[in-house]
């Protein structure tokens, strides 16, 4: 499994993307600019995953969102489009260079969307701990985990604290180019961390969950 923009020749992926993804002009502009200008464009959130997340935001009436891993801001922009006008996104990254040079100039053309997003610079584990310490546990509706894979299980645990009952977590890259299906003795640290997170979620009695073959794997968890 891989992201649709990395695998355009797969007829199933191509068909599903065509009859699933409804991008706004701003989303398309940001995706195109990232692919054109960033050598790390494969980090871009897959449009089919962002569509799925936007649908969940509508379904559960989400207002407050955690976006872990900003990059050029594609996921933050998607959540801003789906949220109501009083919605709020806390987006986290240790590096804002791609955001500033590629994503922000596009997002700033849409002040109604930009005002919903707070771009926080720093390690996401610390930032999530700060929110928990400030009494924000149980007050978020939706979380997208898409930063350093070594912290995936940490992010899941902290997001579970920060989400209300009925809140949704999407964990991206959960199949990591199918590497998790290989012999575990061959896993590198990243694959090991993703595999551990998938198994932690499966064993977690405080959520209902499903691992989907969407994008390059998406683990969906609903807080009980
Ligand atoms: C896959 S990209 C995020 C893609 C973005 N969600 C999107 O939809 O396009 C991962 C991002 O995580 C960031 N990152 C890596 N380690 C981090 C950390 N410890 N805390 C916060 N962000 C981190 C990287 O700088 C990178 O921009």
TrEMBL record:
GO terms for molecular function: O-methyltransferase activity; S-adenosylmethionine-dependent methyltransferase activity. SUPFAM superfamilies: S-adenosyl-L-methionine-dependent methyltransferases (SSF53335). The keyword Thylakoid does not apply. Belongs to the class I-like SAM-binding methyltransferase superfamily. Cation-dependent O-methyltransferase family. It holds the Pfam family Methyltransf_3. Keywords: Methyltransferase, S-adenosyl-L-methionine, Transferase. InterPro entries: Cation-dep_OMT, SAM-dependent_MTases_sf, SAM_O-MeTrfase. It comes from Panagrolaimus superbus. PROSITE patterns: SAM_OMT_I (PS51682). The lineage of its organism: Eukaryota, Metazoa, Ecdysozoa, Nematoda, Chromadorea. Coiled coil: none annotated. This is O-methyltransferase. PANTHER family: CATECHOL O-METHYLTRANSFERASE DOMAIN-CONTAINING PROTEIN 1 (PTHR10509:SF93), O-METHYLTRANSFERASE-RELATED (PTHR10509). One of its GO terms (biological process) is methylation. The keyword tRNA-binding does not apply.
